[in-house]
Amino acid sequence: MEMEDRGRSRKRKRAKHRRNKSEGYKQVQPSHSKKTIGEVPEEDEGKEHPKSSASVRAKKSVGLAKSSYFLEKMKARLSGGHFRMLNEKLYTCTGNEALDYFKEDPTLFDMYHAGYQEQLSHWPELPVNIIIKWLKDHSPSLVVADFGCGDARLAKNVKNKVFSFDLVSHGPSVIACDMSNTPLNSESVDVAVFCLSLMGTNFPNYLQEACRVLKPCGWLLIAEVKSRFDPNTGGADPKKFTKAVCDLGFSSITKDFSNKMFILLYFKKKEVKDSKRRKDIEWPELKPCLYKRR
Ligand code: SAH
């Protein structure tokens, strides 16, 4: 009997010990400890948990910062992709097609220009600033036509009367049109500017329009992306391009190839018309300027 009792009491003691052990385990294991790292149950927010609260908050804010960083990166990638798609479109269609395209959805124009500004922010010097300086060095009474003005930076920075043209207008200072067909009178302006805007496949029509609206001896200033005029990389021969512009009715005055990113070509309209028939002018092809993914 004694043996049996002792045996039973030993069994009871072992069972009690097991119960205490498992209860003890429950007590030291907080309910939220099984959650994934960084995840904080709603009801726990703001409560002080020994050891864990500060580190959980820190992990949470690191998590949020990381996700907003990736979101921003994703957005930048998407808008960069949109820009490159729109840019390629502008270089591979006619001005008229581009006008219809942006008429349908003018927000695409803003998207294009956001990407354009981003790309040019990496250029050490902007061609439009060189043209602004050129105008400041000449009489402010010269009337200017800015073909493909973008955000009309040129008009904003000179005293001259400037007619600014682009495919979309966000205000009265820019006239929305295809620049092969502007509302200007013939022989009404002194300076025609094309700053990185000879984009359409029918770019000779833009230069013909400039020739029409320029007064005799008026200036034609062209700034273009250098790679488009580098025959070593499939670009046009600048001599052939210059010859075609001269055949249209201009004299070549200055060529500036000193900048790494763009070239500058300055012409003057001939006083007397001796231009070739438009059909006989041989224009070189100007390849699109496709920006790299950054
Ligand atoms: N000249 C500005 C903007 C250059 S971006 C600057 O230097 O900052 C080229 C601009 O030409 C774009 O805004 C584009 O919309 C415009 N453009 C291209 N083809 C055009 C056309 N057929 N008619 C009017 N604008 C045109």
Summarize the structure.
This protein has 294 residues and is α/β, with parallel strands linked by helices.
Give a verbal description of the structure.
This protein has 294 residues and is an alpha/beta fold. Helices cover 44% and strands 16% of the residues. It has 8 helices and 7 strands; from the N terminus they run H-H-H-H-H-E-H-E-E-E-H-E-H-E-E. The radius of gyration is 35 Å and the shape is elongated. The N and C termini lie far apart (89 Å). 26% of the residues are buried. The model is unreliable at 1-9 and 16-50 (pLDDT under 50).
Helix-strand string:
HHHHHEHEEEHEHEE
Which ligands appear in the coordinates?
S-adenosyl-L-homocysteine
Q: How many β strands by DSSP?
A: 7
The average pLDDT score comes to 83
Considering DSSP H and I runs of 4 or more, what fraction of the residues is helical? 40-55%
Number of helices: 8
Strand line-up across the major sheet: 3-2-1-4-5-7-6
What form results from the Cα inertia axes?
elongated
- Structural category is alpha/beta
Radius of gyration: 35 Å
The major β-sheet equals: 7 strands, mixed
Q: Uncertain spans, ≥5 residues at pLDDT below 50? A: 1-9, 16-50
